[in-house]
């Protein structure tokens, strides 16, 4: 009888573990729990050929549940969209079945923090103590099963678990975090489909740039009604700044850490300096396809002035350093964003512009921001700006709410805080606000 009860206990314990998905990690000692996306999965394949054959391979398990597959990050990772939402236990069951395929390196859930979808895989990030010896690190990896993939920053590494371990980077990072030679550990997250990107103004010609000089001109809304009459004086008085220093300082480099910039754009090409690609695509910082977010941001900052075409940037004499972190599917990785930030300040960027944000808090990104703030501009510190977010709510997004950065919000052509009910009639977005907001424009 005791043996029967014990076996029954093991059965239900195993059933429970199969139904529960680990979705909590720790940031500064505080638990951060994400929600499960009920209609999405992520799959990492061992090689590109299998990834290209993803539909055939996955259909055998998912059948009619398989709606579509999308590029996620790199050449071997795919986001899987399902035709319907599933329960946590159902998702866990399908993940187990997908992981049984020999071509699959890791099937895992897609999670959500606020409005940002974050995929996990078998990788995780660790910052080892500066005093940790290589022998101690090797012993810890031997004990817990992690393998060093590549170094991200000083004492900070990307690691991965073998498929045989049967755990995601969330579980692995929690195991490593308990070690005395680890300062912090966190999952590797892939932020999906542009969820981190924040919208920008895309004015066609300088007379429409009411944010520079607002004379009460008619402004396109992109909604209904199609135009509004702006309120004179609701602007940044950019023309008055130009009276003091026309177009800004040509020695100032602004890093646009974003989706890439159109390197052949006639209103930007003369104001570009060498950039970098940290998007996983490894094809340079030229904006992919018709992706315009980074190009729009760069134009607002430093589109060429006095060239008789297009618009004029606020600092049209300054230079833009294009740094791409979002790939062609709009995804970004917390294993690559720190390198993008480091590249910016290490290569002379005085200002780091980040028109993106959201997602769960991330120590690797925060460490990179700290390095920019303390080591940029030859030790004076680079200026780091982040968008407050476009959710039209009273919660400034991470990482904009950090005290080490400037959180930038939005106003409209009537000097109103941009919100879904403001007089610009753009009902689909509004700037986040709150006590952490530093400036609005």
TrEMBL record:
Coiled-coil residue spans: none
Record carries keyword Protease: yes
A Pfam cross-reference name: Peptidase_S8
MF terms in GO: serine-type endopeptidase activity
Sorted UniProt keywords: Hydrolase, Protease, Serine protease
Record-linked SUPFAM superfamilies: Subtilisin-like (SSF52743)
Keyword Protease included in the entry's annotation: yes
Ranges of residues in domain Peptidase S8/S53: 250-429
GO BP, sorted A to Z: proteolysis
Lineage top rank: taxon: Bacteria
Family from the record: Belongs to the peptidase S8 family.
Protein name: Peptidase S8/S53 domain-containing protein
Species of the source: Caldithrix abyssi
Organism classification: Bacteria, Pseudomonadati, Calditrichota, Calditrichia, Calditrichales
